[in-house]
Amino acid sequence: MSNHATISDSAKIGRDCYIGDFAVIGDESVIGDNTVINSRAVLKNSIIGNNCLVQSGSVIGEDGFAFERNKKDMKLEIFPHYGNVIIKDDVEIFANCSVARGSLSDTIIEQGTKIDALCHFAHNVETGKNTQFAAGVVVGGSTTVGDNCWLGHNSTIKHKLKIGNNVIVGSGSSVIHDVEAKDIVAGFPAKSIRYKINISEDKLFLMAAQERDIKSET
To answer: 81, 120, 123, 153: which one is catalytic?
Structure first.
């Protein structure tokens, strides 16, 4: 661990971890084994699993952007946040990402999910397992994204949506409606283009993830 890191006395850090220069690990934070927190990353209100990576400049567990109006004078008053960020095993979060803590529930990043640089996850977001978020993705509050999805660069997902399993979202898309499992959506606003793509389901993710044929390697 770097001598320049700031680590709360109440934080719990597992075995064989690395905490980089000027990283901040806040009160009650929990970090599992073999996890790397790079320089200038900030963790608050967070529980992180084993074998995870948080790259430089990412901020995990700050309050989300949530306000209510006072009916008398219409001033904005911040909505309190009581939840955590829960990051499961084998998650990788690249540089300069923001993952907000939950308000009344938790923000959850499931096992094996990979998040590229400059992504933002609002409060109460839940992702499935092994989903990829390319650079610049924004996910609105209380949205659920399924397993094995791929969300393209600079795509935006409206709040309170449900994105099914095995979904592909095209780069630059604006998703404003729920997306069914195994669909492909693109555009502004995003619409299904699955019917336009003549490709078998077992090869679908060659478009997005360069899926390896494990059978051919054995």
So the answer is: 123
